[in-house]
Amino acid sequence: MRHLLSTADLDPAAAVRVLDTAEHMAATQEREQKKLPALRGRAVVNLFYEDSTRTRVSFEAAAKRLSADVITFAAKGSSVSKGESLKDTAATLQALGADAVVVRHPAAGAAYRLATCGWVTGPVVNAGDGQHEHPTQALVDAFSLRRRLCPGARDLAGTHVVIVGDVLHSRVARSDVWLLSTLGARVTLVAPPTLVPLGAGSWPCAVSFDLDEVLPDADAVMLLRVQSERMTGQFFPTAREYTRRYGLDARRLRALKDHAAVLHPGPMNRGLEISAEAADGPRSLVLDQVSNGVAVRMAVLFLLLTGNEGG
Amino acid sequence: MTTVLTGSDVTRAVTRIAHQIAEAAPPPDAAVGGHPVLLGIHTRGVPLARRLAAEYRRITGREVAVGALDITLYRDDLRRTATRTPGPTDVPFPVEDRVVVLVDDVLFSGRTVRAALDAIRDLGRPAAVRLAVLVDRGHRRLPVRADHVGRNQPTSLDEHVRVRLAEVDGTDGVEVLQPTPAGGASA
Q: Does residue A2 belong to any structural domain of this protein?
């Protein structure tokens, strides 16, 4: 693994390796002494052109737990607001000695560009690029699902994961579709027709417009946030209609299999795509998704930053 | 290829080391009557530690705790060598004020032991750390020495010492593999 740009680049062995490494990272985080010396002396730059709480904080915690130095760079309050380009910013970071760059950017492909243009020499981790991909979140989802649904198993073979909601604007959904299917899960996307992206027919998943039909067969339901900040047009008539047709309310929660899990990558719009009962109930993996975030990102940084200096 | 320890030699070496561990005087500040805990270093140190524990129990009638230590995250060559997926570190008992016996199959440069000492430091502060190895092949790069050695086996740097244990490899034995003219070691 040279960079982590898209979950489509991960073959089953590589994906399982990240999850297994994350499992051991998680075990070290239950000790009193949580800091590991593995990345001592390395510098990880968090380059965030877009707002984020969970992802930025968990990358920062992950790097620090592995003893790396962390330089967090938020576009607000930097020279980016004076018009500096991604290229010049990257060159500056390179000159400062960044060993790895974690980048979040509103434009799809920003991480790919950073990784392939020779502006930085170290590994690049995509922490979300526009509406394209968010691979570490998908790895967190897969890790949380494997722990809950398939304890002790290698992958997610035989499970059925239903992803509901604003697929069109969701980078998490794209990354999840590729990763979960690579890990052997069957994936079904459920959304209003207006929120299904063009070309979803060629993805390794099924597409449905009817949540009630799909739910009884699901081992896990992942709700996506309705991303009003990315919606410039009308995608559904009213929020109430969306909730009625695609929200996970108490009635739909009861239609689920006994063991079925509920996920949401956050931040949640409670009462819109997910009810409080679903978000806070025993099926919910929402908090696991946050707490597992550090271990998974430790695994990603560890695998990317070790063994790459030939010799 | 030269066989330096047969299966029964391995068993005898384990028995002898277990006797040595049982006879070693505990430091005065050791807790729990000086009974040691055994920490096997992944991969083959773990089954070796289990065998030593079984022998120790047979000799002294006392149970001895066994843990597994993975040192991948503590190596000093992480930048250079291809990484192994870290294995589980499973030490389900406190090491604080105990005598810890580190167990590994081969003692070579001493770097693994250095990493293991760092890993132990993150688990607690033992009264003492001792080192038991099945084979000491020489060529130390660090000031490390073993307290209990199954066999001292002088080697040249380009030779390879292959330890096989039934739990991992299906059979017991230690061989020294000579390098082939082409480079790498071969049977």
A: no
Q: What average pLDDT score do residues A243-264 get?
A: 95
Residues A225, A285: one domain? yes
Report the mean per-residue pLDDT for chain B. Answer: 91
Give the pTM. Answer: 0.89
Both A139 and A23 in one domain: the answer is no
When pLDDT is averaged across residues A234-260 and rounded to a whole number, the result is: 92
- Which among A25, A27, A306 is the nearest to B78, CB-wise? A306
How is A202-271 classified by DSSP, letter by letter? GSSSEEES-HHHHGGG-SEEEEPP--GGG--S-SSS-HHHHHHHH-B-HHHHHHS-TT-EEE--S---BT
B72 vs A contacts (CB less than 8 Å) = 38
Q: Which residues of A touch B78 (CB under 8 A)?
A: 38-39, 306-307
Question: Token digits for B38?
Answer: 């055994």
| pLDDT recorded at residue A232 | 65
A180 and A66 housed in the same domain: no
Task: Say which residues have a Cβ less than 8 Å from residue B131's Cβ, sequence separation at least 6.
Answer: B101, B102, B104, B107, B113, B144, B145, B146, B147, B148
Q: Does residue A50 lie in a domain region?
A: yes
- Do A204 and A153 share a structural domain? yes
Question: Does residue B186 have a pLDDT over 80?
Answer: no
User: Is there a contact between B73 and A303 if contact means CB atoms under 8 Å apart?
Assistant: no
Query: Residue A36 is part of a domain; what is its CATH number?
Result: 3.40.50.1370
Which tokens in the block code for residue B125? 């502060």
**How many Å lie between the alpha carbon of B5 and the closest alpha carbon of chain A?**
33
Residue B41 one-letter amino acid: I
CA-nearest residue to B82 within chain A is A307
Query: Which chain A residues touch B73 with a CB distance below 8 Å?
Result: 28, 36-38, 66, 302
How many domains, in total, are found in chain A?
Answer: 2
Going by pLDDT thresholds of 50, 70 and 90, the confidence category of residue A202 is very high
Picking from B73, B77, B84 by the largest number of A CB atoms within 10 A of its own CB, the best residue to mutate is B73
Domain B8-25+33-154 is found in CATH 3.40.50.920: no
